[in-house]
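Board notes (copied after class):
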Amino acid sequence: MAITTIEAEGVHEWHARPNCSLTPFARRILIGGVILISLIVSGGFLLAGAWLVLPFAGLELAALFIALRILDRRDQSSETVRLEGSRLSVDSHLPGSDIHQDFTVGWARLSLEADNGSDPLVCIRSHGRCCRVGHLMTPEQRSQFYADLSRRLRS
């Protein structure tokens, strides 16, 4: 996963997003090529009298299309943590949830918490609210982010 740290005067921002190996254009070229090859091959079988190949080719193309749509949704995910003055804001855009929470730096507490034996996420707590970040980070990136944010919150 890719994490970007931006530091400007009085502002520190961490932005995490998944790595995208295919651009949307390349993804369209890929699916177009697979559709073309599949239709040529299944059309040849259809002309040879094996018409039953065509519905299975359609199922295969539908499964590929669904898989690529799921990848599109995942590639649009992002998590941003912004520390500006006495305000800590968290924006999380994950499939199925969009979260924006603001915390006061003096009251915010950090911890690493794991759910059901999974890798621990960074949990930011304040006034009974909890926001978990780090879904898009590797465990090493999470621990580095936790240490960096903890240090900045203490100073």
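Comment from the instructor: Strands lie at 2-8, 11-17, 78-84, 87-94, 97-104, 109-113, 121-126, 129-133. The mean pLDDT is 89.
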